[in-house]
Amino acid sequence: MNFRVGIGFDLHRLGPNTPLTLGGIVIPHPLGLIGHSDGDVLCHAITDALLGAAGIGNIGELFPETDPALKGVSSLGFLEKVVALVRAKGYEIGNIDSNILAERPRLLPFFPAMSERIASALGIESGRIQVKAKTMEGLGEIGAGQAMAAEAVALIFSK
Question: Quick check: pTM over 0.70?
Answer without folding.
Answer: yes
